[in-house]
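Example (one chain per record):
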Amino acid sequence: MNKPLFSIMLFAVGMTYASLQAQHHPEPTQAKSPLSFSSVINQSLKDPELKNYKMISQILTVAPGGMDTVSHRHGCDLFGYVLEGEIQIGLNKNPPQTFKTGQMFYEEYKILHHYLNNPDRAKPCRILLLFIIKDGSEGYVPEYQSKK
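Predicted structure:
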C-alpha cells in the first residue's frame, strides 16, 4: 500500500473514532430551572393609605413535570391565578393543595412556601402572580441560606 493512501485511511479512521467518542461523551450541561418568569407590570399604588406599596405582576411558567422544593418566604402578600394547567402548592409544611385553570390562590405575608409542582408531564403550567409589596421589603427570601 502506498504511503499517501495509508495516511489518508489512518486520518479517516482517527476522525471517525473521535466523532464516535464525542457522541458517547457529550459536554456537560447546566441543569435548566423548571421555573421561568416574565414581567407584566410594576406599578406604585396611588391610594394615600397605600402610598409606599406597589403591585408587581409576573407570569410564572412551570415546565412539564417541573418541581421546586426550595423553602422560601415572600415579604409581601401574593396572589396567583392559574392561567393554564394545574399546580400543586405546599405552604407551612402542610400537604400541597391543587389549583387548576381559572382558580386563584393566596399566600399571606411571610408564610413558608416549601413546595411547587406541575403534575402534568406533557404541558407547562402558567400562573399570573400578583405581589402587593411595601417599598424596601424583600420579595423573595430563602428559608435556608446556601452554603458557599
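Caption: The chain has one domain: 35-142.
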